[in-house]
Amino acid sequence: MLPAAADDFFRAELITDGAVLSDAISVLVGIENSLQLQGDEGVPVTIDRGDTYLLPYAAGLLRVSGTGRAIRCLPPAADRPASAGTEPTPS
After folding, report:
1. Residue 30, beta-bridge partner list
2. How many domains are there within the chain?
3. Cα 23 to the chain's mean position, in Å?
4. Residue 10 pairs with which residues in a beta bridge?
5. Tens place of pLDDT for every residue, the chain, 91 residues?
6. Distance CA 46, CA 23 (A)
């Protein structure tokens, strides 16, 4: 979804019906119709177009159903090397 230059900073995934969201901190933005998120416990959460949710790591695995689409924004992959210029400079 994003240019390769963004890989060192964050990732984005298109989320649709049937997806299973891994336990990771992320931001979910509804972009079309609506989706429902269901974890192992608790009540389902509906995400409509225009809604934005912060999903904590502690939410665990979430199953997605519905006719909508959303974009999930996540931190960079753990196996990504640090970019030049992102290391702290000694003072």
Report:
1. 70
2. 1
3. 10
4. none
5. 777 777 777 889 999 999 999 999 999 999 999 999 999 888 899 999 999 999 999 998 999 999 999 999 999 877 755 554 455 445 5
6. 18
